[in-house]
Write a structure and sequence with these properties.
Blueprint: E1 11-17, E2 20-26, H1 32-39, E3 58-61, E4 64-67, E5 80-82, H2 96-103, H3 113-126, H4 132-138, H5 150-166
Parallel strand pairs: 1-5
Antiparallel strand pairs: 1-2, 3-4, 3-5
Helix pairs in contact: 2-5
Protein name: (2Fe-2S)-binding protein
Domain 2Fe-2S ferredoxin-type: 11-87
GO molecular function, one term: 2 iron, 2 sulfur cluster binding
Length: 171
């Protein structure tokens, strides 16, 4: 689908989304969030506040967590984007974070969950053995109105222990 701005111009970009190269034409003012949801059809990334306050739209841009509502799609040209749909290392299995969020009841309404899981993955990739304080600090930009965060932190801690026990080759 080609998106055009008010003047009718669009900018061609190539973005690798969840390991798949995508050629898109986007208006210069379109956010990465809107392009992911509307052009790429990946609706797991949620549109919450649309001003960067809630973290529901968190994705990895070249393995760095970003609020996709604050990134213009044209800024992602040539980059790799990982959404909640691409977080699992194997398309036939959930990521251990996803499994533990379900098993431990770490989500209630689930709206914030994709952004929190993506942020937690980035945290564990950078720090495979975070303390509770480091987890809470790492999730400071992700708002959950339902859970109180206790089970979220627990799910991340359990995942960290499981991944450490599995070693570098297993997840």
């Amino acid at each position: 689908m080609t998106t055009t701005n008010a003047a009718g111009a669009s900018i061609p970009i190539t973005v690798t989304i969840n390991g798949e190269a995508r050629d898109l034409a986007v208006a210069p003012s379109r956010t990465l969030l809107d392009v992911l949801r509307n052009e790429a059809g990946l609706t797991g990334t949620k549109k919450g506040c649309d001003v960067g306050d809630c973290g529901a739209c968190t994705v990895l841009l070249d393995d760095v967590p970003v609020n996709s509502c604050l990134v213009l799609a044209v800024e992602a040209d040539g980059c790799s984007v990982t959404t909640i749909e691409g977080i699992a290392p194997d398309p036939d299995r959930l990521h251990p974070l996803q499994e533990n969020f379900m098993a431990l009841g770490a989500s209630q309404c689930g709206f914030c969950t994709p952004g929190i899981i993506v942020m937690a993955k980035a945290l564990l990739d950078k720090n495979p053995n975070p303390t509770e304080e480091e987890i809470r600090f790492g999730l400071a930009g992700n708002i959950c109105r339902c859970t109180g965060y206790t089970k979220i932190v627990e799910a991340i801690q359990v995942t960290a222990r499981q991944m450490a026990a599995a070693g570098p080759d297993g997840a």
